[in-house]
């Protein structure tokens, strides 16, 4: 009997259980995309309250429900009349069980690091409606439809809300149940595939970008429209924002903002509305793509947030977090923070959006503080004047916003890649040579990262050609940031997996039977157990090795077992 072949070992009830396991689990497709859909309303006695959660059996903790309630309504200072869309991000309660752990390895393995599912946070996407209504005591209808997900797909979920929210506000719960049942029929979110997502008579067609193995790899192909009825609405991206629109009043300060994000500095964005607040924070986080931002960030943050005290304490330095706020009260609260971006309503200066100025933190005193970037930060790198000139020229020529946004995104991405490339090259030099990987020894170690050694490599392979400035100082500061720590941990894990794969390949290429000839039974059994553990680890952690390689190793284990005495064979087959 093959211990890895489950077909022969399933008899009676266990075989029935296996068949049942193949049946679709209720809401499994829904939960691959969403955690739940909530309706938040304003109750005169209770304030904000969750009116409905769908599916009904979703278990949100009381703390999560309270956070969703407060984060789903603009505060009274925003004066949002009509329909408003914005996003928030909240910390998951400690110790909660997750509904998607069976799927996350496959999705996260194939998705770019910036689009991976969150393990400790939820993203909330809000469609808020506030309209005059004489039948309500306060004179206003106030309600939010909220999509909660672990996926950072802002474009997709806001597009989904634009389809379902207006209809829901008219038809209420039956409509929501229908929508959730439709989402439960969606295909799995597989990166690289064109996905057709039908909802309420509309088909949204999307493509989640696949992981690109090398920096600056080939762009994702645009999905082809199939012969579908109704014709699909093609979303160009599941996540990308209009960067030009988000940054149009701070364009001349992009170099500073890029550095603040790269270094994971504490930043507060004070905006006139939750929409501007959340879009600006998410745009800042995306400014260092393809590098993932590893600090905390809250696109919309209120004084009712459960982390309010943690983030506003003056007894310690501000944490590595970006907060988006709309309440002027925060101006006083965050006076000790090192970087505050105060945004207002967009003003024009001729053909160009008026640019805010960098100001001293000491001037941040009153509730009517003027727009500006309040910081004492001095950039390590010089401004790219040629880039700013081309961007301003594009605005004067009235180029479309999406064209200017693509130009801005490409510039930021190229700058991040220039910064990361020397680090990637240095990491490659830490890998053990392939010839040192032997099937008869434990895998060789990856050399430790030495900051000083890396700095010496900059003289020959640094990024100085792209932008002039103090690159050495920028790297040294980066090494103290959460972004370096997160990036290095991730890359080290990938490198360890690569060494593990090379070791597996070496074992599969070796003549294990000949090696056994002069070995004792104890040594052979020890080898079998080690090979089985290696095989199990490769499958559990989904190492990037071909399945035929693992099958060959399985076959080798079986061949070695069959060469042993029968009593030992029986014992090993049972394990």
TrEMBL record:
One of its GO terms (cellular component) is recycling endosome. InterPro entries: ABL9/DENND6_dom, DENND6, Tripartite_DENN. PANTHER family: LD41638P (PTHR13677), PROTEIN DENND6B (PTHR13677:SF2). This is Protein DENND6B isoform X2. The gene is dennd6b. Residues 1-21 are annotated as: Disordered. One of its GO terms (molecular function) is guanyl-nucleotide exchange factor activity. Belongs to the DENND6 family. Residues 35-500 form the UDENN domain.
């Amino acid at each position: 009997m093959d211990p890895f072949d489950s077909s022969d070992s399933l008899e009676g009830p266990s075989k029935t259980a296996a068949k049942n396991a193949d049946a679709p689990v209720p809401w499994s497709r829904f939960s691959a995309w969403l955690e739940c859909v909530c309706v938040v309303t304003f109750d005169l006695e209770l304030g904000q309250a969750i009116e409905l959660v769908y599916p009904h059996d979703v278990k949100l903790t009381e703390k999560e429900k309270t956070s969703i309630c407060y984060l789903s309504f603009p505060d009274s200072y925003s004066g949002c009349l009509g329909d408003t869309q914005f996003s928030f991000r909240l910390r998951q309660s400690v110790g909660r069980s997750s509904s998607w752990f069976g799927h996350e390895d496959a999705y996260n393995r194939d998705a770019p690091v910036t689009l991976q599912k969150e393990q400790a946070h939820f993203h909330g996407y809000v469609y808020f409606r506030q309209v005059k209504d004489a039948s309500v005591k306060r004179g206003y209808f106030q309600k939010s439809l909220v999509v909660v997900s672990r996926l950072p797909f802002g474009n997709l979920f806001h597009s989904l809300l634009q389809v379902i929210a207006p209809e829901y506000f008219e038809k209420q719960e039956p409509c929501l149940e229908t929508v959730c049942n439709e989402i439960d029929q969606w295909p799995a979110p597989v990166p690289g595939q064109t996905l057709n997502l039908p909802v309420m008579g509309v088909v949204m067609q999307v493509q989640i970008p696949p992981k690109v193995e090398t920096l600056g790899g080939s762009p994702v192909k645009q999905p082809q429209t199939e012969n579908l009825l109704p014709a699909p609405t093609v979303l160009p991206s599941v996540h990308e924002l209009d960067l030009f629109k988000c940054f149009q009043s701070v364009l001349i300060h992009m170099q500073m903002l890029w550095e603040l994000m790269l270094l994971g500095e504490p930043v507060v964005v004070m905006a006139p509305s939750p929409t501007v607040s959340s879009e600006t924070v998410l745009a800042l986080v995306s400014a260092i793509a393809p590098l993932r931002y590893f600090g905390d960030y809250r696109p919309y943050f209120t004084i009712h947030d459960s982390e309010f005290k943690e983030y506003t304490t003056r007894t310690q330095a501000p944490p590595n977090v970006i907060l988006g706020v709309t309440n002027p009260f925060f101006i006083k609260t965050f006076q000790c923070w090192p970087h505050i971006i105060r945004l207002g309503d967009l003003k024009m200066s001729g053909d160009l959006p008026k640019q805010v100025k960098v100001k001293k933190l000491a001037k941040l005193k009153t509730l009517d503080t003027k727009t500006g970037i309040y910081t004492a930060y001095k950039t390590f790198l010089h401004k790219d004047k040629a880039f700013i000139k081309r961007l301003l020229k594009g605005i004067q020529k009235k180029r479309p916003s999406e064209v200017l946004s693509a130009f801005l995104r490409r510039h930021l991405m190229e700058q991040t890649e220039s910064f990361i490339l020397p680090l990637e090259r240095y990491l490659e030099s830490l890998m053990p040579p392939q010839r040192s990987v032997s099937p008869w020894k434990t895998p060789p170690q990856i050399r430790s990262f030495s900051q000083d050694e890396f700095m010496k490599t900059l003289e020959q392979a640094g990024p100085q050609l792209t932008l002039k400035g103090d690159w050495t100082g920028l790297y040294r500061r980066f090494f103290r940031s959460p972004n370096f720590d997160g990036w290095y941990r991730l890359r080290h894990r990938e490198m360890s997996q690569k060494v593990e794969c090379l070791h597996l390949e070496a074992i599969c290429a070796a003549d294990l039977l000949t090696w056994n000839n002069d070995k004792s039974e104890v040594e052979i059994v020890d080898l079998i157990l080690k090979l089985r553990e290696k095989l199990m680890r490769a499958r559990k952690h989904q190492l990037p090795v071909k399945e035929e390689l693992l099958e060959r190793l399985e076959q080798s284990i079986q061949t070695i077992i069959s060469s042993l005495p029968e009593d030992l064979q029986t014992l090993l087959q049972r394990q």
